[in-house]
């Protein structure tokens, strides 16, 4: 059996996720290969090689559930005709991502975190988004995401 996940590992995985999103946007702004940066982000932080990844991104309506690596990549960088609504969430660009967990539930080698994360725009304004992420251990011993659900707060 895999070693039990710790809250510290979840915090480090969240930090790596945020840094990866910022990196993709910076590579885009600098004129680099932002698609390669996004692929690295997916391959490092998501568990597509271990089974289904339940991915429900924030700004997706026509194809609201993304169950393949290809569809997740499209959400982050756009440019895929199969997902015409995608304009590249990660190439916005963002300057920082900050997580605030409401709770982290850990049961052995699986963890789920839920709360708000805040994306800082170039002008310094923060965008608040709600999330739930599920984590399991990858073959490399690092946490990998197999559940990613995010949405904008209800504005009724």
Automatic annotation (TrEMBL):
SUPFAM superfamilies tied to this protein: NTF2-like
Domain of life: Bacteria
The protein's name: Phosphoribosyl-AMP cyclohydrolase
Organism, scientific name: Candidatus Desulfatifera sulfidica
């Amino acid at each position: 059996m895999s070693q039990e996940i710790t809250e510290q590992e979840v915090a480090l995985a969240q930090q790596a996720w945020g840094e990866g999103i910022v990196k993709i946007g910076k590579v885009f702004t600098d004129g680099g290969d932002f698609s390669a940066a996004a692929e690295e982000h997916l391959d490092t932080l998501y568990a597509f090689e271990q089974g289904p990844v339940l991915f429900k991104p924030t700004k997706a309506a026509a194809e609201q559930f993304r169950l393949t690596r290809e569809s997740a990549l499209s959400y982050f960088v756009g440019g895929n005709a199969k997902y015409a609504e995608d304009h590249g969430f990660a190439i916005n660009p963002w300057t920082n991502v900050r997580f605030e967990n409401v709770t982290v539930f850990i049961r052995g080698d699986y963890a789920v975190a839920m709360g708000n994360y805040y994306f800082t725009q170039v002008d310094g304004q923060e965008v608040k988004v709600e999330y739930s992420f599920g984590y399991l251990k990858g073959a490399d011993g690092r946490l990998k995401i197999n559940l990613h659900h995010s949405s904008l707060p209800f504005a009724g």
